[in-house]
Amino acid sequence: MKTDIQRGLVLRNEKCHEHYTTEFLYNLYSSEGKGIFDCRINVLGHLQQGGAPTPFDRNYGTKLGVKAVLWMSEKLREVYRKGRVFANSGDSACVIGLRKKVVAFSPVTELKKVTDFEHRLPQEQWWLNLRLMLKMLANYQISLTEYISGKMEHVTRRTLSIEKGF
């Protein structure tokens, strides 16, 4: 930790040794890292529930707010005619957010088609094809051969090739 490394990550599975709790690991790293590094606890379930916003959250929220106001101003200019606003098109009600690493506005009418309202989730999750790997990491009884073999090709190849991207 005294070298160029700026960050570290410790992952703990809920099925690990009973004495190696999250609090124990936090206390261990906190006491050993005094003056060299600091640490904090992030439990995935707690992160999903929200809590106190970080500076990144505040900065990102401000940027999204500015983009939303600029978008609304542009839309109002487009639909304002003779003292009235005609906002009856499909893209007049949108949600701002990330779509494939790009901040985008998604019309509510499109989101309605791809949303599971009962469970409050998208109907298609990007991470579903990672479930077998997640099960392996969670110590399920699963065979590596059940995983998609084509995706493992770069791991088993003996030579690296710049032309092929490896």
TrEMBL record:
Under the heading Gene3D superfamilies, the entry gives: 3.40.50.450, Phosphofructokinase domain
Q: Name one GO molecular function term.
A: monosaccharide binding
Q: Do the record's keywords include Hydrolase?
A: no
PANTHER family attached to this UniProt entry: ATP-DEPENDENT 6-PHOSPHOFRUCTOKINASE, LIVER TYPE (PTHR13697:SF14), PHOSPHOFRUCTOKINASE (PTHR13697)
Q: What is this protein called?
A: PFKAL protein
Q: Which GO terms describe its biological process?
A: canonical glycolysis; fructose 1,6-bisphosphate metabolic process; fructose 6-phosphate metabolic process
Keywords from the UniProt entry: Kinase, Magnesium, Metal-binding, Transferase
Q: Where is the Phosphofructokinase domain?
A: 7-71
Report any Pfam family annotated for this entry: PFK
InterPro entries named among the record's database cross-references: Phosphofructokinase_CS (IPR015912), Phosphofructokinase_dom (IPR000023), PKF_sf (IPR035966)
